[in-house]
Amino acid sequence: PPPAAENLCPGAEQKVVFITARVHPGETPSSFVCQGIIDFLVSQHPIAKVLRDNLVFKIAPMLNPDGVYLGNYRCSLMGFDLNRHWANPSPWAHPTLHGVKQLIIEMYNNPKINLEFYIDIHAHSTMMNGFMYGNIFEDEERFQRQAVFPKLLCQNAEDFSYSSTSFNRDAVKAGTGRRFLGGLLNDTSYCYTLEVSFYSYILGGPTSTVPYTEEAYMKLGRNVARTFLDYYRLNSLVERPLASTPKTR
């Protein structure tokens, strides 16, 4: 049988990336981005294999299934904007948040698990491109380290904008997953909201906008997954096909 992946061997320390999407039912692009991440991670792509061997991905692709079913824009069946209830989710009123939060806290309290990333995928109705929101920390070094992943993603995805990426702590966002978990988890964890435009992305000059398609959203998801290869410097582990020897004349 093939050798077990390092991160799944008994007693091994696990590096975990936790991804959630579609907490706001009307933000359908977030589902396509998440689909791109999932499809890539379970594929036979050599990069996907290295990621599976070295990291554990936990993905909750739809945090608001009842709102999606009903065709709501932001709310759940009971009229809650779930992305403002992370601080104290009720198992009765916000069951998906409650379940995900319990799992995250269990993992955080497990000494064998390093919860390294939390990424919550949304879609944005007025901005262009893909971009991220991060948190503000007093510790300058932690603040700088948090900027590494979006900078790497910007190199991998032509539609991702680092200039639109921002780090904030405004009160209106206090109950969001990114803000709440950013305050809960320790300084080796990075929490982001990944936003992608409902409409289009800009290539080159401000006049050349490219409308998003389902495939383009999924491609952004694939590029998010690939960026973990760069972040963890796993590039040397990817099996590359042997280059053909150039014929001499």
From TrEMBL:
Any GO BP:
proteolysis
Catalytic residue list: 195 (proton donor/acceptor)
**Required co-factor?**
Zn(2+)
Q: Which residues form the Peptidase M14 domain?
A: 1-232
Q: Does the keyword Hydrolase apply?
A: yes
Q: Per its UniProt record, what Pfam families does this chain match?
A: Peptidase_M14
Say which domain of life the source belongs to. Eukaryota
Print the keywords alphabetically.
Carboxypeptidase, Hydrolase, Protease
Under Gene Ontology molecular function, one entry of this record is: metallocarboxypeptidase activity
Tell me the PANTHER family matching this sequence.
CYTOSOLIC CARBOXYPEPTIDASE, CYTOSOLIC CARBOXYPEPTIDASE 6
Question: Could you say which protein family the record assigns here?
Answer: Belongs to the peptidase M14 family.
Designated name of the protein: CBPC6 carboxypeptidase
- Protein species of origin: Caloenas nicobarica (Nicobar pigeon)
